[in-house]
Every structure is written in C-alpha cells, then in structure tokens.
Amino acid sequence: MVRTGGVLKFAALIFAFLLAVFLAFQLLEINLDFKLSSVISRSMPVNEVSAKPVRYKCGLSKSCPLGHFAFKMTSGAASVVGPRICLEDKLLMSGVKNNVGRGINLALVDGKTGDVIKTDFFDMWAGDVAPLIKFLKEIDEGTIVMMASFDDPSTKLNDEARKLISDLGSSAVSNLGFRDNWIFVGGKGIKTKSPFEQHIKNSADTNKFEGWPEVLEMEGCVPQRQD
C-alpha cells in the first residue's frame, strides 16, 4: 500500500514536471512569435492605399508634358466673386490677392520662362476702353496672354480692342456681349486661333445666376516658347 502510494506520488511529480516544461515552451514560443511578428510588421512598407493622392500643378487633372506650362483659370461669378488665374502652381490673379476687378482681367506671362510680367484689369462697364487698347498694343512678341471676364466684359469694348484681342488668337471676342462669361489664353505673335478659350452667352433662358451665366473653368498645358 505504501509502495503504491509512493509510485503515485512519483508519477504525479513527473506529470507536474512535464506540464511545467510544456507550459514553459508554449510561453517561449508565443513570446518569440510576438517578437518576430513585431519585427516583420516594422519592416513591411506602408500600405499604398494610405499614401496621399498625387497633386498636379494648379490642381490639374493630369501633369503637363515637358516644355509646357500648366494653367487653370475660372471666370468671375456674377458680380460677386472675381476670376482666378493660376500658372505653374502660382496664383497670378484672384480675389484673395486683391488684384481683380470688373471687366476684363489680364495676366501677361513670359512665354520662355513662365515668369509673370504684369497683371491688370479694365472696367468695361463704367471705364474707358483707351487704357485697355494701350495695354494691348504694348504687349511684347512671344508673351502669353491670359484673360478672364468679371461681371461685364464688353459694353465699352470697341472694334479696335476686339481686333487686338482677336490677333492674340481669340475666336470669341467678336461675339462677346453684355455680361457674357469668357476665359481665354493666347499669345502675341500667334499664327493660328488659340485652342484655349471658352465663352458662354448671357441669356435669361440658360443663366445660372439671375442676370449672369454660369462660371467657366478651363485647364490645360500651354507650349513654352523655345526660340
């Protein structure tokens, strides 16, 4: 009876020892697995989904090819919000910059470097067309000319001014009317009509605002002057 009790105690000790060894190995394996997982997770690249989306110059939908300037512009909204002109990620004209006004807004850009030469606006409702004509005649060859309407771009616009703007590549300026919206990118010395132009008529049937048409927006890539 004593011998049997001793055997049972010995067996119980052996079992306890083996259980302790087993549990120790299990804990060691879990710890090693945790450390290994931690190392692996630190070495893995950041998930591509969390990366920021690509942003192109001036917020364009795609990048421009080499040898081109990226631009984006909007016309004015009624008589409330002024136009906005961006070139190569630089804001040239806007209400925030406080350099826009009623009428025709213009930005002159060096066709070779993309540098801004001058910005100005001319009131075509209560102003005089003579300063605009003088401004247009003084534009140097090879200059990129960007124009955007705000409120009314045409009441004081005469045939001479329209011809000067047409020579910059505009197709729509001859039909520009009272409170029409219009945006245009052309150049001094251009040989053909510019592909960068939008025009919408002021019409009670289609106007988005009472008395004014909807805002126009245009983006694109202007070829850089190479000579």
UniProtKB/TrEMBL annotation:
The chain crosses the membrane at residues 7-28. Signal peptide: none annotated. PROSITE patterns: GG_LECTIN. One of its GO terms (cellular component) is extracellular region. Keywords: Disulfide bond, Lectin, Membrane, Secreted, Signal, Transmembrane, Transmembrane helix. Its main location: secreted. It is found in: Secreted. InterPro entries: FAM3, ILEI/PANDER_dom, ILEI_FAM3C. One of its GO terms (molecular function) is carbohydrate binding. Residues 102-189 form the ILEI/PANDER domain. It comes from the Eukaryota. Pfam families: ILEI. Belongs to the FAM3 family. PANTHER family: UNCHARACTERIZED FAM3 (PTHR14592). This is FAM3 metabolism regulating signaling molecule C. It comes from Sander lucioperca (Pike-perch). The gene is fam3c.
